[in-house]
Design goal:
The complex is a heterotrimer of chains A (264), B (312) and C (492). Chain A has 264 residues and is of the alpha/beta class. Chain A has ten helices and ten strands. Chain A has one domain: Aldehyde Dehydrogenase, Chain A, domain 1 (3-Layer(aba) Sandwich). In chain A, helix 7 links the parallel strand 6 and strand 7. The longest helix of chain A is centred in the N-terminal third of the chain and has 20 residues. Chain A is globular and about 85 Å long. Chain C is of the alpha/beta class. Helix content of chain C is 37%, strand content 17%. In chain C, a hairpin with a 2-residue loop joins strand 2 and strand 3. In chain C, 57% of the residues are buried. Classes of the chains: A alpha/beta (264), B alpha/beta (312), C alpha/beta (492). The interface between B and C is large, with 45 and 36 residues.
Chain lengths: 264, 312, 492
């Protein structure tokens, strides 16, 4: 008789832990039962992100870069698992390399996006980028791993804490990614992943008053109503294109300019 | 009230000629200096000496609403003989209690070398009228407390009313006669190292024999950088006036290792003359057992368990 | 005020609060008896046939025998670098190149203790510095530049950066591993290959680095290491197939190198000597400023190009500052570099010690007052106690010439203008320090100081993201940061 495998339970990823949905619901997808997140789960995730934000943002850029590089290291170790889930080796390669690419931006964003400004007066004036706070991301339906990583890494690298609504039809890669995050020094709450029905959850995220930025890349259909909801607290609605760019990270950053007189 | 005395012409600037340069403290640098001092590695013989010195410097403290004569009796026993198994362990410097418990404490320590320190001046907040606070201090001294630990008025300090802070210290010192005055700055409320330095100099100017970091009722309490700032202020006073003032970090020092790091800081900042309970104290309760644990470890070579040391 | 009541405490005041020797173990390092040159991915015998021992300056112990490369060896190394460049390294996908360099960074982090101990053994610096400063920064440099390898188009907007080819890199003995990282990391990130010439007295950590290259699977010939003395360096600079020369060392040698590449198309960057002014105003946080002075000149035994070797203190706080300084100096521990309690290690070589002694003698002869705290210096090895000269005139040799040792010269000033005048009155321009609580004055001074690095209310801070380099005879070009990439690319 062949050995019976232990089946995995796919739960949410909130505050660094893997709770079930507070609603107790799940849905069957990709051959497994996956937590069906509720509005309260989104609420809890935003709370966890907000709590984690100061310490994640407070790390040195070098530190943040190292943490994200470590995610790549852990994923590399779990290649087989990811390949089995997404069925595409090239996608896994690209996802890991994307983490490495964005990790390298941590301590360079300020140099490329920041400036020293030669104002017409005896003042020292400089502009620096800062994370906006909590970013909500609606992950693309496909590709299940790379699509998520390409949206998540740029938000994270600048110091933001993130709440992700995972691909509805293919959520397993996201929760497996969460396992990699949970074991790679990413502070609990810096990334939170909610699985479930986008039709239920998007509006909650878009309308949440304590979310600062919104990436609607993965919204299926018309996003107008979501964008209207976002206006209630003037969220930065992010429309990053495909591919990799430091400007994808910049979309989640504020710019602060500081003045100081120069005098004896 | 302290005021700039009026002169026939002009006016005297009251503080500058009589205080060392107030100046400021750089946060990053002082924290780095403290971190470097904490990395010093002590010779084994010196470590044993340091641990026993730390015991002799401890003010064993209980300051709870629920304190009773029974609790104070137990504390006093512990203070007099910290380790029943090892009679070579010396007594601590003092027990520190609330005013109502002073007579009970005095009774218990009579005939031993252990002193009784009492808090006063509306401890821990200090938010009471000056005359009441001074009167409390006077009564506690009359009850026989050897040492009075007063608090400064942080409300006054933070609103810029430095004269009131200075004045209250001065009045309390006058009121307590021969008793020895420690002034608690409550550094956790002062917000910056600059303020810790300023408050230290103000308290010493007012008559403090000791400057003390904290009431132990809030966090943060004593940290090594804060203590270092106070040691540097005391050093400047000594350079300018020749007077030696004591320093007492209180609260937040639970491990023997922290206590030894503090002693290293004292040694390197002020020198060995300050390595005496007359000029340095630890305000602590759980520290004592960890000191005993480490002493026994040094003497026997074996790591110890807290179960073997009494909780009083 | 009443005297503190001393009745209770009869115990004698301890005269000694002794620090135990806390030696870091040498066992973590394995040394070969003899090292060849690292060319084309393997160790080879030097064609020069010349070997000399590398000596530990704290004990005069011979640690290992090291090759002294000659003209033929240099030629072989340049050839290997050229082959590696043409045969792929320059056309590796940039993302893959990044990952190799990340591997180097991570391996250095894992083997940091091994490298730190060897660095202290071979060079003389205290283990606390090699462990807490040199190695972490070296690893961080590789990590930082790894991230640039596949992002060069963002560093130079609208320009197309390409690697130069073969970079000849000559590094000094004061921060051997850190200088190696400062040179090799950006060169590799930009797609170049390297021939590295470590300093004569400190070859061992560079030779150990060859093992990191092996573990990281860096292709053969991408980094070549030719140990030796000034002759090897000279051959390397002159070699016609070198595209880029990077040198850190004395101004004197830097000028020779600049002459040697004149008329060629070789790109050159130089990081040379300094005589930095550390300026203290009367409103400075004084105890921390004194820490900063001490850190500025006694860190790494003063073997630092950007050392704050001139203290410019405002006259109104002169007495107080000097008193605090002398007191602080008496707490400095000179001793075994491998002892974790040591603050000041050994002088790197006998030659350097003699140079320091000569200049200190000149200071006394010219009329300055000298102070050294009481120090028990070990019998063997080369040592110099921390020293401070007061009553120094601007014209004294000790105020003008770089001593490169734990010797501070103190001058005074009255106004900010005078401070600027004195600080800038030097052919050097590498670094400067300013201590004042007044923000506007920090910026005013920073604006006027002619130095490549200005430290305000701090000193000797380094970071891979922060560009470092000098004005005037302290050299040209910057290392670190986005600007550090420029030296290693050309534009189409």
């Amino acid at each position: 008789m062949t050995r019976l495998p232990v089946a995995k339970t796919y739960k949410l990823f909130v505050g660094g832990a893997f709770p079930r949905s507070e609603s107790g619901r799940s849905y069957e997808i990709e051959g497994a039962n996956v937590a069906l997140g509720s509005r309260k789960d989104v609420r809890d995730a935003v709370r966890a992100a907000r709590e984690a934000f100061p310490s994640w943002a407070g790390l040195t850029a070098y530190n943040r870069g190292q943490v994200l590089y470590r995610v790549a290291e852990i994923m590399e170790g779990r290649r087989a698992q990811f390949e089995e889930l997404v069925g595409d080796q090239a996608e896994v390669d690209a996802a890991i390399d994307a983490w490495v690419w964005y990790a390298g931006w941590a301590d360079k964003l300020a140099q490329v996006l920041g400036t020293s400004n030669p104002v017409a007066g005896p003042y020292f004036n400089f502009t620096i980028p800062e994370p906006t706070g909590v970013a909500g991301i609606v992950a693309p339906e496909e590709p299940p791993l790379l699509g998520l990583v390409e949206r998540l890494a740029p938000a994270l690298i600048g110091g933001n804490a993130v709440v992700v609504l995972a691909s509805e039809r293919r959520p397993l890669a996201a929760i497996t990614l969460a396992e990699a995050l949970a074991t790679s020094d990413v502070p609990g709450g810096a990334v939170n992943i909610i699985t479930g029905r986008k039709s239920e959850l998007c509006a909650v995220l878009a309308g949440h008053m304590d979310v600062n930025a919104l990436d609607l890349a993965g919204v299926v259909g018309d996003s107008t109503e979501l964008e209207r909801l976002a206006a209630d607290n003037v969220k930065r609605v992010v429309r990053n294109g495909g591919g990799h760019s430091p400007w994808h990270a910049a979309a989640f950053l504020e710019l602060k300019t500081v003045w100081h007189p120069i005098g004896v | 009230m302290a005021q700039a005395p009026a002169l026939p012409h002009g006016f005297e600037l009251p503080l500058l000629p009589r205080l060392p340069r107030i100046g400021s403290v750089d946060q990053v640098a002082i924290e780095e200096r403290a971190a470097t001092l904490a990395k010093r590695s002590i010779k084994r013989e010196s470590k044993l000496f340091a641990l026993e010195l730390a015991v002799r410097m401890t003010d064993l403290t209980t300051l709870e609403g629920s304190d009773t004569p029974g609790k104070v009796a137990a504390l006093a026993s512990k203070a007099i003989r910290p380790d029943p198994v090892d009679p070579t362990i010396p007594s601590v410097a003092a027990v520190c209690v609330y005013p109502n418990l002073v007579p009970h404490a005095l009774e218990r320590v009579e005939g031993t070398g252990v002193k009784v320190a009492s808090v006063a001046t509306a401890f821990p907040s200090g938010q009471s009228p000056t005359d009441i606070k001074v009167e409390e201090a006077r009564r506690v001294a009359e009850l026989g407390a050897h040492e009075i630990d007063m608090v400064i008025d942080r409300g006054a300090f933070l609103s810029g009313n430095y004269a009131k802070v200075y004045d209250e210290v001065r009045q309390v010192k006058e009121a307590i006669g021969d008793s020895h005055l420690k002034v608690i700055l409550e550094t956790g409320e002062l917000g910056t190292y600059d303020n810790v330095r300023r408050a230290s100099l103000l308290a010493i100017a007012g008559g403090a024999d000791f400057v003390k970091t904290s009431t132990g009722k809030i966090n943060p309490a004593a940290t090594l950088p804060v203590t270092l700032v106070m040691l540097e202020a005391v050093r400047d006073v000594f350079e300018e006036t020749g007077k030696r003032i004591g320093v007492k970090p209180a609260g937040g020092i639970r491990r023997a290792k922290q206590a030894v790091q503090h002693l290293v800081a004292v040694n390197e900042t002020l020198g060995p003359e300050w390595l005496t309970p007359d000029l340095f104290r630890f305000g602590a309760s759980s520290l004592l057992n960890d000191l005993l644990l480490q002493i026994r470890k040094e003497k026997t070579g074996r790591y110890q368990s807290p179960d073997y040391f009494t909780l009083d | 005020m009443t005297e503190i009541d001393k009745k209770q405490d009869r115990s004698p005041v301890p005269s000694v609060f002794e620090y135990s020797p806390a030696p870091e173990s040498r066992d973590v390092v394995t040394l070969e008896d003899r090292y060849g040159l690292f060319i084309g991915g393997e160790f080879v015998e030097p064609r020069s046939g010349e070997f000399h021992p590398s000596v530990s300056p704290s004990s005069e112990e011979e640690l290992a025998e090291v090759s002294y490369g000659g003209a033929e060896d240099v030629d072989a190394a340049v050839g290997a670098a050229r082959t590696a460049f043409e045969n792929g390294w320059s056309s590796w996908p940039a993302g893959e190149r990044a990952k190799i360099i990340y591997r180097i960074a991570r391996i250095l982090q894992e083997r940091a203790r091994e490298f730190a101990v060897l660095e202290s053994l071979d060079g003389g610096k205290p283990i606390r510095e090699s462990r807490d400063v040199d190695l972490p920064l070296a690893a961080a440099h590789f990590f930082y530049y790894a991230g640039w390898a596949d992002k060069l188009e963002y560093a130079f907007p609208n320009r197309t950066p390409r690697p130069l080819g073969v970079a000849a890199q000559i590094i000094p003995w004061n921060f051997p591993m850190l200088m190696l990282a400062w040179k090799v990391a950006p060169a590799l990130a930009a797609g170049n290959t390297v021939v590295l010439k470590p300093a004569e007295t400190t070859p061992l950590t560079a030779l150990l680095f060859a093992d990191v290259l092996r573990q990281a699977e860096v292709p053969p010939g991408v980094v070549n290491i030719v140990t030796g003395d000034g002759r090897a360096g000279s051959e390397l600079v002159k070699h016609p197939d070198v595209d880029k020369v990077a040198f850190t060392g004395s101004t004197e040698v830097g000028k020779e190198i600049q002459r040697a590449v004149a008329g060629t198309t070789k790109k050159l960057t130089l990081e040379l000597g300094g005589k930095a002014a550390n300026v203290i105003f009367d409103d400075a946080p004084l105890d921390q400023a004194v820490e900063g002075i001490v850190n500025g000149i006694y860190f790494n035994q003063g073997h630092v190009c950007c050392a704050g070797s001139r203290l410019l203190v405002q006259e109104s706080i002169y007495e107080q500052t000097i008193q605090k300084l002398k007191r602080r100096m008496s707490n400095l521990r000179v001793g075994d570099p491998l002892d974790k309690n040591t603050d000041i290690g050994a002088i790197n070589s006998k030659a350097q010690l003699e140079r320091i002694q000569e200049l200190v003698r000149s200071g006394e002869e010219e009329g300055a007052d000298v102070f050294q705290p009481e120090c028990r210096l070990p019998e063997k090895g080369w040592w110099f106690a921390p020293t401070v000269f007061t009553s120094v005139a601007q014209s004294y040799r000790i105020a003008q010439e770089e001593i490169f040792g734990p010797v501070l010269s103190v001058l005074t000033f009255r106004t900010p203008d005078e401070a600027i005048e004195k600080a800038n009155n030097t052919p050097y321009g590498l670094a400067a320090g300013v201590w004042t609580e007044k923000g506007s004055r920090i910026l005013w001074m920073a604006q006027r100081l002619r130095a490549g690095v200005v430290w305000a209310n701090t000193y000797n801070r380094f970071d891979p993201t922060s560009p470092f380099g000098g004005y005037k005879e302290s050299g040209f070009g910057r290392e670190g940061g986005l600007h550090g990439l420029e030296a290693y690319v050309r534009f189409e």
